[in-house]
Amino acid sequence: MEWEDRGELFKRYDGNPILKAEDWPYPANSVFNPAAVLVNGETLLMVRVEDHRGFSHMTVARSRNGYDDWKIDKHPTFPADPENYPEEEYGIEDPRITYIEEQNAWAVAYAAYSESGPLTGLAMTKDFRTFDRIGATLPPENKDAALFPVRFNGKWAMLHRPVSSISNAKSNIWISFSPDMRYWGDHQVLLYAREGGWWDANKIGLSPQPIRTDEGWLIMYHGVRATTSKISYRLGLALLDIEDPRKVICRSEGWIFGPRELYERTGDVNDVVFPCGWVRDNGEVRLYYGSADTYVSVATAQLSDLLNYMHTSPKY
Ligand code: BMA
Question: pLDDT by residue (tens digit) across 121-147?
Answer without folding.
Answer: 999 999 999 999 999 999 999 999 999
